[in-house]
Specification:
The chain is mostly helical. The chain has 3 helices and no strands. The protein is elongated.
């Protein structure tokens, strides 16, 4: 049917323009998926970094004596030491799996 009256070039041009549009949209979708994966994989590290920066920043703003005012620790200020870091990382890793499953669980409850 296409070979009738030498319409091959016209259909080839149409097919090429449609394919170019399709490829540009596929590239956009692939870039979106890639960006989503980068954000998804970096989120735990960004959350940990934000937590540690906030903790350290609050110590610097309030001073070391703010921990001494509370009855939580009698005389020792609360520093960011390796023990706190490792315990925090461990607790965040324990929370990671339930938080990953939370959206799927909510959608299952809604359905």
């Amino acid at each position: 049917v296409i070979k009738l009256y030498a319409w091959e070039k016209a259909f080839q041009t149409q097919a090429d323009s449609i394919r170019t549009t399709e490829l540009s949209r596929l590239v956009r979708v692939a870039l979106g998926w890639g960006l989503g994966n980068v954000i998804w994989n970096l989120a735990p590290f960004v959350i940990l970094l934000t937590t540690f920066v906030t903790f350290t920043w609050s110590l610097l703003l309030n001073g070391e004596t703010s921990a001494m005012k509370s009855n939580a620790t009698a005389t020792m200020p609360m520093f960011l030491d390796p023990e706190r870091i490792f315990v925090s990382v461990s607790l965040f890793n324990l929370l990671r799996a339930p938080l990953i499953l939370l959206p799927w669980s909510l959608s299952a409850v809604i359905m």
